C-alpha cells in the first residue's frame, strides 16, 4: 500500500531514521482525528504497520482430519535409499484412528520387503492407544538392481493381554514408482486395507479395480495384486505379468501388459490402464485379465484368467463387478476374483 500524506499533515516537518523509515516531528504527540470516516493517518498507519494473520496461515494438513467412511486406520511413514551402501531406510512415524476388535488397543507394526514374506522387522508395542506415535527407523539391505521390483508391506496388529496378535489392516507400497534422489525424505500416508483372509482358490486370485468415465468414454483398470499363484516350473526364477485385453463381441480390440514381477506367488503391481469405450458398447464389451508366467525363450504359461463383463459373457461376482462399475461412474470399484484355466 503506498504511503500518502493526508492533506492535514502537509507542510509539517519530517526527519529520516537510520532504517529509512520516516516519523512525524510534531510538538503534540497526540493528534485527535477529525470526525468522519477513519481514512486519516491513524487508520492508514494501522493498515501499514499490522499483520493480518489470515494471510499467513499454512495450508491445513487434511491427512489428519479427512477420513473416508468405513476407514479402519491410517499409517504415516517415509522411505529413503542410500545408493552407495545399498540400504533402504524406512521410518515408521505414526498411525491414527485404528479400529481394534475391543475398546482398548495396543498396536505394533510388522514391516516386510516383498517378495520375502518369511522375514520382517517389527516396531515396539504401544500400549492402550488408537493413535500410536512410533518414530522408529528400520533398515533393509537391498541391491539397487532389485530395489524397484520390491514392495513394502506394513501389517498393523493389536496385541491382546494373552500376547496374541490380531491383524487390524495392512498397507502395500510398491517401490517401482518411487524416485530416490539424494538425502530427500518424503513423508507418505496410506489408509489401511483389510486383508483378504479367504484361502486362495485352486489357481490363485487376482485383485483389480474398475472405473468407467461416461463423459470421456474411458474404461480404467487398476491391476493391484495376485495371490496363491501356482507356478508350473522354476518357482524361484518365475517371472509373472498380467495381460489386460479389451474385447467386443468376442473380437480382440486392444491389450496392455503389466511389468513382470520376479519370484513371488503373491505379486503386487498397482498399475493403471485405460481403454476407449463408448457407453453404447458396454453391453457387448468385456475385459479379460490373464496371469502369465514367462518361460525360456519367448514361451509363456497361462496360470489363470478371469473375464468381467455384461450378462452376455459373465455371471456371479464377475457380472456384479461390471454392473457396480456402471452404476458408480468415475468411482474405482475394487474386488478379488478367482482365476480359472477354462475361461
TrEMBL record:
Keywords: Repeat. Signal peptide: none annotated. It holds the Pfam family C2. It comes from the Eukaryota. Residues 71-190, 202-323 form the C2 domain. CDD domains: C2A_Synaptotagmin-15-17, C2B_Synaptotagmin-15. InterPro entries: C2_dom (IPR000008), C2_domain_sf (IPR035892), Synaptotagmin (IPR001565), Synaptotagmin-15/17_C2A (IPR047897). GO terms for molecular function: calcium ion binding; calcium-dependent phospholipid binding; clathrin binding; phosphatidylserine binding; SNARE binding. One of its GO terms (cellular component) is plasma membrane. PROSITE patterns: C2 (PS50004). GO terms for biological process: calcium-ion regulated exocytosis. Belongs to the synaptotagmin family. This is C2 domain-containing protein. It comes from Chelonoidis abingdonii.
